[in-house]
Amino acid sequence: MVAIMFPLSGLSGDYLIREMIQRISRNLFLIMSLLIPIVAGMGLNFGIVLGAMGGQLALNSYN
Q1: Which DSSP string corresponds to 17-33?
Q2: pLDDT tens, 25-36?
Q3: Would you kindly state where each structural domain of the chain is located, as residue ranges?
Q4: pTM > 0.70
Q5: Is-contact 35 51, C-beta < 8 A?
């Protein structure tokens, strides 16, 4: 399906690769920000909320 739709999209391969790398790195950053408080022993209820808030704050200040 991707092989059929890629040429029809009109996007360059370079643009697609850059977007995929950017999205994967952003998602990995958010996953790490959620895991670190849990591994540190903060507990699920507090750690997930704190990690999500910290990750969003970091991503918003980065862009």
Answers
A1: HHHHHHHHHHHHHHHHH
A2: 888 888 888 888
A3: 14-62
A4: no
A5: yes
